Amino acid sequence: MSATNLNWRAIAAIYRFEMARFFRTAGQSLATPVITTSLYFVVFGAAIGGRMGEIDGVGYGAFIVPGLIMLSVLTESLNNAAFGIYFPRWTGTSYELLSAPVSPFEIVSGYVGAAATKSVILGLVILATASLFVPIQILHPLWMIGFLALTALSFCLFGFITGIWAQSWEQLQVIPMLVITPLTFLGGAFYSIDMLPGVWKTVALFNPIVYLVSGFRWAFYGNADVAVGISLAATLGFLVACLGVVWWIFRTGYRLKP
Question: What does the H/E/C string look like for 31-71?
């Protein structure tokens, strides 16, 4: 499908609708991560960080900044996209959308584009908040934005899949709470996996979040637990896998039709 054949008005309508919901609750949406980030720095940065030395030449308070941003972006990307598509399914208005002259690509572009925009805004807000507590150095700003955008887009697609899969509000919370959050905390967000014993370091390499956090941290400080090329390949691989699943959902009509 070429760009000239896309129904840009339909994409823009879905995008604006989803962004309007975000701006209606912008205070709550942005205040919560700001408060949470501040608490993390009070607990981890001051109480714990003061007793720890530098990690790879970076103070502990600054070291955890990329992990904090990834933790929030992963969670919010998943939740925003999942809620965005599940709510129309729950109210029954998704059938009107599916019957409209709008292609699956255009539907996904509108929902996922809005969710990714929200997540990137959130990540930048957390970065600005963190800079009030510790000095932050970004050696590779373009790579930082690239990893942030790719991660947000990938997990928004994953959230879209989750919103299609879920059949209840309880199921909607299963993946974020029982899968993503534990993997994020065990993915080197608050420590370097080089600090782990040999066996556990090997186990950690099977955690996909490790590659996302490692690549993102490299963009800040030039240090990484995993080579940046491998981190980028892992992120792109996850993105392609999610695109494949979304294509299959629309191809088969999985849980889109009664």
Answer: HHHHHHHHHHHHHHHHHHHHHCCCECCECHHHHCHHHHHHH
User: Shortest CA distance to 30 belongs to which of 38, 137, 171, 235?
Assistant: 38
Domain for residue 258, yes or no? Answer: no
Compute the residue count for the chain. Answer: 258
CA angle, residues 249, 10, 254, in degrees to nearest 5 = 10
58-111 pLDDT, tens digit per residue, is 888 888 889 889 988 988 899 889 998 898 888 877 777 777 888 888 889 999
Report phi then psi at 55, rounded to 5.
-115, 115
Domain residues for the domain of 145 are 3-252
Query: How many domains, the chain?
Result: 1
Q: Which residues 6+ apart lie within 8 Å of 244 measured at CB?
A: none
Reference 235, options 142, 126, 158; nearest CA is: 158
What are the pLDDT digits (tens) for 236-258?
999 999 999 999 998 888 887 65
User: What are the residue ranges in the chain where pLDDT is below 70?
Assistant: 1-4, 45-51, 257-258
Q: Using alpha carbons, select from 86, 59, 238 the residue that is nearest to residue 172.
A: 86
